[in-house]
Amino acid sequence: MTLALLLLALGTFLLRLLPWRGEGSLRAGQAGPALVVALFLVSAFSPPPSPEWLRTGLALLGTYLGARLTGNLGLAVFLGVGLYGLLGLL
Amino acid sequence: MREGLEAAWPIALGYFPVAVAFGALGAQAGLGYLWIQLTSLLVFAGASQFALLGLLAQGVPPLLAATLGLLLNLRHAFYGPALRPYLKGGPLEAFFLTDEVFALALKALPGLLPEERRGYFLGLGLGAYLSWNLGTALGALGAKGLLAWPVLGEALSFALPALFLLLALPHLRNPLALLAGGAALALHLLGQTAWGLFLAGVIGLFGGRRP
């Protein structure tokens, strides 16, 4: 079991390190923006589609408005978390 | 480094309840505290840690469980090349390269002076790492009562989607990013999240190349 842990740790580390260091071997194209949008959608919407998505959507809207109003990323996330929690109480 | 540490708090906020859940699950599965903590200390990749735990608990052979966990992390191979124009990757930087650290770094690094970037990135990674490991320790040592208020744990877990939204906003008019995101979401809804993210990376990698 410890061997599995070490293999996972080493493999994950190399997956992160080697492509980063490989000068010119792998050009990123638009992988960055593509992955950020994908990470957002995947983290926000859990399957299957449900009314929970409405709560998530409203809290995301609150997060967006928070960012527009305050210009502070951390504060906007905090507002979104609070709104999401409040909507869960309804 | 201090600026990076300060910028890491939305990530830390989101990581903490997930890490507590990871530690608590490990303890419930009968794993020793040391093993659970070592997993978070050495792997630092949430989804694959949960997968390793679940697969081992189901009696899957350890090496196969580790291999499946690695498949989940294939998407990480795209992160370094995307950051390479702004920061050279070393062992420490690579160790901290989670989904959230990558996304926040991709937004912040271009606006920093080259000499500030490494410290910022390491501060970001360290903040995330400390939160992940503190949460793991508390969960494994039986502090899952911290999440006894379901609303609190659930609300804190929303920090990560909220953070990703704000990081994704500048890219939501990019048709290729939207295509990649749509493909990832479709596979995610079919229960294939890791492959969806991998596909998004492939679309971004090859779709963005000029002939």
Per-chain topology:
The complex is a heterodimer of chains A (90) and B (211).
Chain A: H1 2-21, H2 31-44, H3 52-70, H4 73-89
Chain B: H1 2-7, H2 9-28, H3 33-42, H4 46-57, H5 62-72, H6 79-83, H7 91-95, H8 99-108, H9 114-140, H10 150-157, H11 159-168, H12 175-189, H13 193-207
Helix pairs in contact in B: 2-4, 2-9, 2-10, 3-9, 4-5, 8-11, 12-13
Describe the structure.
The complex is a heterodimer of chains A (90) and B (211). Chain A is built from 4 helices and no strands. Chain A has helices spanning 2-21, 31-44, 52-70, 73-89. Chain A has 90 residues and is an all-alpha fold. The model of chain B has no long low-confidence stretch (mean pLDDT 87). Chain B is globular and about 45 Å long. In chain B, 73% of the residues lie in helices and 0% in strands. The longest helix of chain B has 27 residues, at 114-140. By secondary structure, chain B is mostly helical. In chain B, helix 2 (9-28) runs parallel beside helix 9. The interface between A and B is large, with 61 and 93 residues.
